[in-house]
Amino acid sequence: xxxxxxxxxxxxxxxxxxxxxxxxxxxxxxxxxxxxxxxxxxxxxxxxxxxxxxxxxxxxxxxxxxxxxxxxxxxxxxxxxxxxxxxxxxxxxxxxxxxxxxxxxxxxxxxxxxxxxxxxxxxxxxxxxxxxxxxxxxxxxxxxxxxxxxxxxxxxxxxxxxxxxxxxxxxxxxxxxxxxxxxxxxxxxxxxxxxxxxxxxxxxxxxxxxxxxxxxxxxxxxxxxxxxxxxxxxxxxxxxxxxxxxxxxxxxxxxxxxxxxxxxxxxxxxxxxxxxxxxxxxxxxxxxxxxxxxxxxxxxxxxxxxxxxxxxxxxxxxxxxxxxxxxxxxxxxxxxxxxxxxxxxxxxxxxxxxxxx
Amino acid sequence: xxxxxxxxxxxxxxxxxxxxxxxxxxxxxxxxxxxxxxxxxxxxxxxxxxxxxxxxxxxxxxxxxxxxxxxxxxxxxxxxxxxxxxxxxxxxxxxxxxxxxxxxxxxxxxxxxxxxxxxxxxxxxxxxxxxxxxxxxxxxxxxxxxxxxxxxxxxxxxxxxxxxxxxxxxxxxxxxxxxxxxxxxxxxxxxxxxxxxxxxxxxxxxxxxxxxxxxxxxxxxxxxxxxxxxxxxxxxxxxxxxxxxxxxxxxxxxxxxxxxxxxxxxxxxxxxxxxxxxxxxxxxxxxxxxxxxxxxxxxxxxxxxxxxxxxxxxxxxxxxxxxxxxxxxxxxxxxxxxxxxxxxxxxxxxxxxxxxxxxxxxxxxxxxxxxxxxxxxxxxxxxxxxxxxxxxxxxxxxxxxxxxxxxxxxxxxxxxxxxxxxxxxxxxxxxxxxxxxxxxxxxxxxxxxxxxxxxxxxxxxxxxxxxxxxxxxxxxxxxxxxxxxxxxxxxxxxxxxxxxxxxxxxxxxxxxxxxxxxxxxxxxxxx
Lengths: 357, 527
Prior knowledge:
The complex is a heterodimer.
Chain A: E1 10-13, E2 16-19, E3 24-26, E4 34-36, E5 51-54, H1 56-66, E6 74-77, E7 84-86, E8 89-95, E9 103-109, E10 112-116, E11 138-143, H2 155-168, E12 174-177, H3 183-193, E13 200-202, H4 204-215, E14 223-225, E15 243-246, E16 263-267, H5 274-279, E17 284-286, H6 294-303, E18 308-314, H7 316-325, E19 329-332
Chain B: H1 4-17, H2 21-34, H3 39-48, H4 58-66, H5 71-81, H6 84-91, H7 104-113, H8 119-129, H9 132-143, H10 152-163, H11 167-175, H12 182-188, E1 210-211, E2 225-231, E3 234-241, E4 244-249, H13 260-265, E5 270-280, E6 283-284, H14 287-291, H15 301-306, E7 309-319, E8 322-323, H16 329-343, E9 348-350, H17 359-368, E10 374-381, E11 395-399, E12 403-414, E13 423-432, E14 435-442, H18 448-460, E15 462-466, E16 469-472, E17 477-482, E18 484-487, E19 495-498, E20 501-506, H19 517-521
Parallel strand pairs in B: 1-11, 7-9
Antiparallel strand pairs in B: 2-10, 3-4, 3-5, 5-6, 5-7, 7-8, 10-11, 12-13, 12-16, 12-17, 13-14, 15-16, 17-20, 18-19
């Protein structure tokens, strides 16, 4: 018996990818009856599903971000690698290497296997388990950085550039714009690996998830909230020589006045393109991403040996073309609501000139 | 020196992203302190645009990358990135095990010697050996597209700060050397004498004036001071001699190519200091006419005819090879008059002294001199030697009182660097009928305390946002002072201000009582 083509049992619907025989959606964009969630970023994990399947870490992140009542009527934690049968569909979660708890969803039905990878990267990350390729008939991939201009350099080198800048500007504070889930904790862990033992200062918006990571067994070292502005004159403005993490663009708000002449830094894969960084007024761009770069996307497609790749979101045309030249059928799914991502959303539009002068 | 091109790439990248002057100075100081010769001098020359080669056209770079990449992926990438050099730097397929990267000095030396035909192969070899930043730096270097916002003046300031030498001495020594400036670095590090320009047509740092405050007037007297008009052009230094001719701006930029008729007229040997003006039948044209001639690499005969340039002389630094700078002003003035009488160069004339018997007389002349081309008066000590820089108490500039209008704040934009959390750039307008039309933009003139107040006002009165720009309620009156009003085709109001700044916040004044556009229009030509 030949196995059914994945098209016949995995459909693209307005709510997202739907596995028909199991009656379950994967990372749906709206509230559904039954959902499997690949990881905790808000364009994958939406509130209000009746039943949610995910790793224990992803469920904890969802509860922390949306509140226990909105994170799913019933929550079922799945251990990585452990199979679960739903109406004859065997489901497994396999590490995706994106953020803590992130998993690929491996589904098998009547000898046909689909891997929905969610978001992923192949580079090592001290805060989460590394990506494991699983051979399959259809590999569903992201394409956030699917242009050959996006090749992320080794993260350790970027951290060294940051430390060199701190040595060069000891009287200034370095503020790094990062997203609250994943990037913040990875950056902290990378700094610890590079030997930075001083306390790292956090904007209030980042504290809760850092605490959650620690409680889930990811050590981050000493972390302190950024102290409020001292009223007595500018000389008191603080944290010279220190590292502060804050949400992107927090350094253009009055909050930043409590910092000593801050060097505006940011950590994102988009910053590989220098003009982008310049447009955003970033003084020290750090090219550190939690998404696969061009080489990783191509290598992964080859590692999983899938004859067919479905692309959920990102720059589909370049990836589909490049896979085609390698004999892999590629198809863009155009999923709704994806890539409006909080972890590496497209940078804010170019500053518009003042209407006059 | 392997690895130094990587260091240079890193410097370029930091300079490109750094907004603040102090931070740029720190980056440059670090470069001088950390890099070996000749790389530091070569890097310096590359940044300031003093490296004399541009060996590669963008088309050649593009051909190199086309041989190595898929055309479809190249197009998609170029479309996304938008800059050829950067696209090439990012796309270039690096070999698995690259050779060690070339040094900056090696690259520059090879480019200077290489026959044109061998440049592509050399470039490809270097690109194979560099990382992304290195490739970008190399492509920008060979195509002459380094634009990192660091001028020669800034670089010389950094050299002065790093070495502890006065910036005027660094200026003069700099102009006496060529890249990679080895004698300059030898001198700055105490290993050699100060480089001397001798007869070469090099820039000598100008003597500058302080703004005169009311309190300083007491020290001015006809016995000890000389007065002259402050013409509204740009300060220049004309150097001519057996080894060449140059026209320098006050910051040491070479203007020779933009003003060939001046250079042609420099039939003398010496160094003189004056004001570059557009002069028609002896009448000085408005500054706007001179602006037509500035910032142009080449100048057409028509431009020269429509906007004829001339230099009105204030001072003389060298007569032939004789350094007159130690002489007192009166003695130099006599030498200048004699020099002009002897050589009588076309397009050069003498700025007259303004005689006065008492200071009050000067005040009246300053207030009533409404000719467009006069910015005010210069007051110079009769015994002052020509000293580079802004030495207090020798020369004063006494500008005419600025013009002023009451405008309404319309838009505010976030500043940069230290001001990035403040709305510190203000666009303001005047009434035309029932509507406000923008007339200018200012980001200075207020105190730190006023800035905090203005920032809070902007945040509390925002009506719309466009990226970093906020539109505000048309409710706050700002008293704006400026040096002159000019017609302008670039502004919707048809008018532009020179050097507008915020003089006062008029929170007491209703917006409806702010000035009308006609008030500003009537000031054109009065500046």
